[in-house]
Amino acid sequence: xxxxxxxxxxxxxxxxxxxxxxxxxxxxxxxxxxxxxxxxxxxxxxxxxxxxxxxxxxxxxxxxxxxxxxxxxxxxxxxxxxxxxxxxxxxxxxxxxxxxxxxxxxxxxxxxxxxxxxxxxxxxxxxxxxxxxxxxxxxxxxxxxxxxxxxxxxxxxxxxxxxxxxxxxxxxxxxxxxxxxxxxxxxxxxxxxxxxxxxxxxxxxxxxxxxxxxxxxxxxxxxxxxxxxxxxxxxxxxxxxxxxxxxxxxxxxxxxxxxxxxxxxxxxxxxxxxxxxxxxxx
Length: 282
Ligand SMILES: NC(=O)c1ccc[n+]([C@@H]2O[C@H](COP(=O)([O-])OP(=O)(O)OC[C@H]3O[C@@H](n4cnc5c(N)ncnc54)[C@H](OP(=O)(O)O)[C@@H]3O)[C@@H](O)[C@H]2O)c1
Prior knowledge:
With 282 residues, the protein is of the alpha/beta class. It has two domains: 2-131 and 163-187, Rossmann fold, CATH 3.40.50.720; 134-159 and 190-250 and 264-278, NAD(P)-binding Rossmann-like Domain (Rossmann fold, 3-Layer(aba) Sandwich), CATH 3.40.50. Helix content is 42%, strand content 15%. Strands 3-2-1-4-5-6-8 form a seven-stranded parallel sheet, with helices on both faces. Strands 7-9 form a two-stranded parallel sheet. β4, α3 (73-85) and β5 form a beta-alpha-beta unit. α3 (73-85) runs parallel beside α5 (106-120). Bound molecules: NADP nicotinamide-adenine-dinucleotide phosphate. Residues 6-12, 29-32, 36, 48-50, 67, 69, 71, 94, 96, 107, 130, 132-133, 136 line the site of NADP nicotinamide-adenine-dinucleotide phosphate.
């Protein structure tokens, strides 16, 4: 049985059905089973990584998909140690390409430390390091629905965005077949697109023109704080990461195609799949 942390998140909600389709048993973790919409074939367990009895949650698990929100190294180290004690054979951690590029922002540093904890815990390990997710473009929903406009920070670089379903497909391969123990995989989409190209692809998929507006970093920060209610500290953390990742976001790795034997999903396909999310609200 494979224990999936973050089962309700962006990667996890694709990973759970993909593992079940591959024929494995899945235990899916959530803090709120009543709210969570998890594939009914999975065993759903309630738990909080900060307060629950980790050995009890992990009992009987063969492999664990390790994804934690909040970039908390201690949490992942605790999971790794409890997994080792529970006799788990393989840990697969979701990290970030930032570690490959040696980025110095706090989020990337926390992932680097958590990778070390996973490698040192005892069970076999595999590290998945995706770059920026296509799903990050859901942040444009509000202004597209309200005013057919996308505001982008003028310094945002071209990015080889990855579809979360490709990350889930690689995780499924790694969790259900042998030969990936001790491997670290950088994962991106197949092409780097500028923000203008991303907006054009989205406009095409939605079927109406979108206005593309570049704004300064301070205007972009203000928008997140004032319009979207982000805590200023989280905004600073995001921009620290953006500054560090900007020179590397255009780098394309061929790992998805090498591992899966097919090209990664394109941003245009992602946009078509998710177009209805951007439609005007009645
Ligand atoms: N977005 C990107 O471009 C990008 C790129 C590279 C790497 N990453 C990495 O991807 C990871 C996930 O990112 P995300 O922030 O978008 O989150 P997410 O995976 O979409 O959602 C967070 C998940 O964590 C679970 N969770 C949160 N707190 C928990 C707790 N205390 N105990 C148990 N489960 C808990 C939530 O489950 P419930 O709410 O159901 O309990 C949910 O399933 C992060 O490590 C991030 O650094 C992101």
